[in-house]
């Protein structure tokens, strides 16, 4: 069985413990979560959770079915096989000197990223894009000296209506 990365999106109730129950389920099944991102959805009192985990199609389908059984989960879908838009946000603090600052700025511009903070010895770069874009930018900035990096992990949605299995009575 081939193992690959899956993107699972769940609509969950905004209640304490939901994230913990979700993470515990993955842990009990022996899955490592590559990233997990949670934020408010278009429906009041519901959040959208995007989980990226590695496993075979069969393993991930079993996990998806288990996630569906969690009381506070409204809807869950593995959108890996769909045509999706996915993004990640990264903040990267890079050492800079007056001599290197313009070169860093050029690299940042190429990636359509932006500098959001400047200090005497560093610049902070904000980058948004797919994981490969963020990785590429990070690799180009590494030689200058990356002081710190913070990444959100993947968030994703299916294009068009292909991921919407909404009941007409819902939200």
From TrEMBL:
<protein>
    <recommendedName>
        <fullName>Acetolactate synthase small subunit</fullName>
        <ecNumber>2.2.1.6</ecNumber>
    </recommendedName>
</protein>
<comment type="pathway">
    <text>Amino-acid biosynthesis; L-valine biosynthesis; L-valine from pyruvate: step 1/4.</text>
</comment>
<comment type="function">
    <text>Catalyzes the conversion of 2 pyruvate molecules into acetolactate in the first common step of the biosynthetic pathway of the branched-amino acids such as leucine, isoleucine, and valine.</text>
</comment>
<dbReference type="InterPro" id="IPR019455">
    <property type="entry name" value="Acetolactate_synth_ssu_C"/>
</dbReference>
<dbReference type="GO" id="GO:0003984">
    <property type="term" value="F:acetolactate synthase activity"/>
</dbReference>
<dbReference type="InterPro" id="IPR027271">
    <property type="entry name" value="Acetolactate_synth/TF_NikR_C"/>
</dbReference>
<dbReference type="GO" id="GO:0009099">
    <property type="term" value="P:L-valine biosynthetic process"/>
</dbReference>
<dbReference type="GO" id="GO:0005829">
    <property type="term" value="C:cytosol"/>
</dbReference>
<dbReference type="GO" id="GO:1990610">
    <property type="term" value="F:acetolactate synthase regulator activity"/>
</dbReference>
<dbReference type="GO" id="GO:0009097">
    <property type="term" value="P:isoleucine biosynthetic process"/>
</dbReference>
<dbReference type="InterPro" id="IPR004789">
    <property type="entry name" value="Acetalactate_synth_ssu"/>
</dbReference>
<comment type="similarity">
    <text>Belongs to the acetolactate synthase small subunit family.</text>
</comment>
<comment type="subunit">
    <text>Dimer of large and small chains.</text>
</comment>
<keyword id="KW-0100">Branched-chain amino acid biosynthesis</keyword>
<keyword id="KW-0808">Transferase</keyword>
<dbReference type="InterPro" id="IPR045865">
    <property type="entry name" value="ACT-like_dom_sf"/>
</dbReference>
<dbReference type="InterPro" id="IPR002912">
    <property type="entry name" value="ACT_dom"/>
</dbReference>
<dbReference type="Pfam" id="PF10369">
    <property type="entry name" value="ALS_ss_C"/>
</dbReference>
<dbReference type="InterPro" id="IPR054480">
    <property type="entry name" value="AHAS_small-like_ACT"/>
</dbReference>
<comment type="pathway">
    <text>Amino-acid biosynthesis; L-isoleucine biosynthesis; L-isoleucine from 2-oxobutanoate: step 1/4.</text>
</comment>
<feature type="domain" description="ACT">
    <location>
        <begin position="7"/>
        <end position="81"/>
    </location>
</feature>
<dbReference type="InterPro" id="IPR039557">
    <property type="entry name" value="AHAS_ACT"/>
</dbReference>
<keyword id="KW-0028">Amino-acid biosynthesis</keyword>
<dbReference type="Pfam" id="PF22629">
    <property type="entry name" value="ACT_AHAS_ss"/>
</dbReference>
């Amino acid at each position: 069985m081939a193992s690959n990365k899956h993107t699972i999106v769940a609509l969950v109730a905004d209640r304490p413990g939901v994230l913990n129950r979700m993470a515990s389920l993955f842990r009990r099944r022996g899955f490592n979560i590559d990233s997990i991102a949670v934020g408010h959805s278009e429906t009041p009192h519901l959040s959208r959770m995007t989980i990226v985990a590695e496993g075979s199609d069969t393993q991930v389908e079993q996990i998806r079915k288990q996630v569906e059984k969690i009381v506070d989960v409204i809807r869950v879908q593995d959108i890996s096989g769909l045509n999706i838009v996915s993004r990640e946000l990264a903040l990267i603090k890079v050492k800079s000197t007056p001599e290197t600052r313009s070169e860093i700025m050029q690299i940042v511009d190429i990636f359509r990223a932006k500098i959001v903070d400047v200090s005497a010895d560093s610049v902070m770069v904000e980058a948004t894009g797919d994981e490969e874009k963020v990785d590429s930018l990070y690799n180009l900035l590494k030689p200058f000296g990356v002081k710190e990096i913070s990444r959100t992990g993947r968030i994703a949605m299916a294009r068009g209506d292909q991921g919407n299995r909404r009941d007409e009575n819902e939200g």
